[in-house]
């Protein structure tokens, strides 16, 4: 699983990255967590609000700083929206 935090590197983006990393660890997932910060790539991916969260290339959330519990529901194996 590939999880990307999309945003220019603001405090909210950093916080989402930390929360995603915590959720992945708590769930024991085998996932690569990365950052996409380039304005061109953000525009190409259709990011309209930051931070955004993409799972395996599909944007799942834009403009929201989710909690670890919310992220775990999205990332859990078998989650309907992941």
Account of the protein in words:
The chain has 82 residues and is of the alpha+beta class. It contains three helices and four strands. It has helices at residues 11-27, 39-44, 68-75; strands at residues 2-6, 32-36, 52-55, 58-62. Helix 1 (11-27) crosses helix 3. It starts with a strand and ends in a 7-residue tail after the last helix. The relative contact order is 0.26. The mean pLDDT is 93.
Keywords summarizing the entry:
four-stranded mixed β-sheet, 82 residues, single chain, 38% helix, alpha+beta
Instruction: Please count the beta strands (DSSP E, at least 2 residues each).
Output: 4
Regions with little confidence, pLDDT below 50 for 5+ residues: none
Count of alpha/pi helices:
3
Beta strand %: 15-25%
Question: Summary?
Answer:
It is built from 3 helices and 4 strands, in the order βαβαββα. The chain has about 80 residues and is α+β, with helices and mostly antiparallel strands.
Task: Map the helices and strands.
Blueprint: E1 2-6, H1 11-27, E2 32-36, H2 39-44, E3 52-55, E4 58-62, H3 68-75
Parallel strand pairs: 1-2
Antiparallel strand pairs: 1-3, 3-4
